[in-house]
Amino acid sequence: MIGNDKTQTSVSAHLLAPLPYAENALEPVISARTIGFHYGKHHKGYVENLNKLAAGTEFAGMMLQKIVAATVGNPDKVAIFNNASQAWNHTFYWHSLSSQGGGEPPAALKQKIEAAFGNVDACKKELAAAATTQFGSGWAWLVLDGDKLKVVKTANADSPLTKGLKPLLTVDVWEHAYYLDYQNRRADYLAALLDKLIDWNFADGNLRG
Ligand code: MN
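Predict the joint structure of the above. Result:
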């Protein structure tokens, strides 16, 4: 058991995964105010809702990825799917960003990017295009499909985990991810994030993980 976090209501409750950096670490691209709301209200809210929904059920002590797999497409389990998937997606998103991000990917990832997209810029362009054209709320992802890299987008809480794809990194394009800093300018948020924050090392590690 870890600490005395208020989200931990029982031994089997899901914990809010720690933010891997300070709330102001991603400034000026993403403000501490945005991260404060996004992590401290939105992400925390998904975990709290999940705990309420899962209490006393088989899902209480189940890994998030297992809950996602077990509930996807089940009309009776929409709420638990949405909250479990959003909890997983957000932790993955925090780790997809770094104050040391941007730049050149590590060699193994770069080689795969060049094989799939031609070059790193083309990969970033495809990520930006997927993220800007996701209508309404959702996510853009770099994934491994078999042995090949691909860019995909998912709506609302959905995830590549439910499609047999291995996520390598993600970008949150729900309005709460950028509206305080960029208002309606989703493309500006994406351009800055992909240039300065995207953590290729995380994606590279996931290639082998
Ligand atoms: Mn979000």
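The domain at 107-208 is CATH 3.55.40.20 (minor pseudopilin epsh fold).
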